[in-house]
Amino acid sequence: MNRKHEITYARAIFCLIIVAVHILSNYLRDVELQDHNRMVVLTFQILILFATPCFIILSESLISMVYKDKLPKNFLVKRFKYIMIPYFTIGTFYVYTKYKVDGNEETFWQLFKENLLIGNWYGWFVVVIFQFYILHLIFHKALSKANPVVMLVISFAISLAHSYLMYDNDAYTNWWNEFYPLFHRTNILYWLFYFVFGYYLGRYYNEVLTFVEKKFMWLVGSLAAVTLLVIYSIYQNDVTVVQSNRYDILLYSSLAFIFILVISKKLSKFNISFLYFIGEISFFIYLTHKIMVYYMAKYTFHFIDQFFMYNIATYIFALSLSVGLAVVLSFLPLSRFIIGRNSINSMIRGNYRVE
C-alpha cells in the first residue's frame, strides 16, 4: 500500500485539536466567567471533542486498510508493545506525579490500580483502541462478508442507545458501574459504531474518498446540519458534559472525520513538515500533553484574565514540551516502547548525517 500522507496529516490535526480541548478545560476550571461567556467557550470545546473519537476511528481504519484479507502473525503482541507499553510507562509517571506532587493520601499501588489498571485517567482511549484490535482479530472476516449499511445501522443504534442511557437512565448507569470492571468510558458499547465505521472506511478507503470528494458540498451541508443539532442539544437539552463519548456527537464525529480526511488530502499536495512531524509523534503527545499543560498552566496563570493570551501561551509551551521530550527520548534505546512507533530518530539522523 502506498503511504497516504493525508492520514498522517489528519492524525496530526486530531492531535492538535485534543490538546486545545484540555487547555480549555483548564481555563474553564480556573477562571470565573459570566454564564453567557462560559457557555460560548464550553460550546466551542464540545464541538472540537470529535478529535478523540476520530483518533480512535483512525486506528481501526489503518488496520482495515493495510490488512484487508489476512492479519500478520503476532498481531496483538506487536500492537500491545507499541501502544500498551507506552500507556503503562507514561501512565506510571502520571500516577507517581499524582502520588508525590499532589500529596495524595492513597498509596502508589492504589493509584496505579485505580488509574492505570482500570483506565481512569486521560489515557483511557488507549484501552479502547486495544479493544478495537481485539474486535478486529475476532470479527474482521465476518464484517468483510456482511452488508456494510446493515452493520453500520445496527452498531449506531447500539452505541446511541448505550450512550444515551448512560447519560439519562440512573438504573442503567448504576448497573454498568456495578458490574463493569474498567473505567466507564472504555466500555466498547460507546465505541462500537466508531469501530464498524472505521473498519469499512479503511476497507473501502479509496472508493469512499473518491465519492466524498465528488459530493464534498453535500458533506459540508450534512456536517453543518449535524453541528446545529449538537448545539441544540447543548442549549435546549442542557447536555454540557465535556466527554467524547457523548451520545449526540456520534454522527457528528464520523462526518468530521471524513471532512478532516478530505481536507488533509488536499493539504497533502503540499509538503507541510510541521504536520508530518506532529503526526509521527501524535500518540506520544496524546499521552504526555496533559502533564505538560498541568505544569505550564502554573506559569501562564498570570494571563488567566486574558483568554487568548492564556490559552495560546499554554498551548504553545505545553505542545513544545511534549515534542521536545519526544525528540530527546527518540535517541534512547527501545524508545519506541515509550514514544510509540515513529520515525523521528531516523529523520534526525538522516538530516544530520556526517559524511
From TrEMBL:
Principal location: membrane
The membrane topology term of the UniProt record is: Multi-pass membrane protein
Q: Where, per UniProt, does this protein localize? A: Cell membrane
Q: Which UniProt keywords apply?
A: Acyltransferase, Cell membrane, Membrane, Transferase, Transmembrane, Transmembrane helix
Any one GO MF term held by the record is: O-acetyltransferase activity
The UniProt record lists the Acyltransferase domain at 5-330
Gene Ontology BP annotations: enterobacterial common antigen biosynthetic process
InterPro entries in the record:
Acyl_transf_3_dom (IPR002656)
* Residues that span the membrane, as ranges: 7-28, 40-59, 80-97, 117-139, 146-167, 187-204, 216-235, 247-263, 275-295, 315-339
Which GO CC annotations does the UniProt entry carry? Answer: plasma membrane
Q: Which family does it belong to?
A: Belongs to the acyltransferase 3 family.
User: What name is this protein filed under?
Assistant: Probable poly-beta-1,6-N-acetyl-D-glucosamine export protein
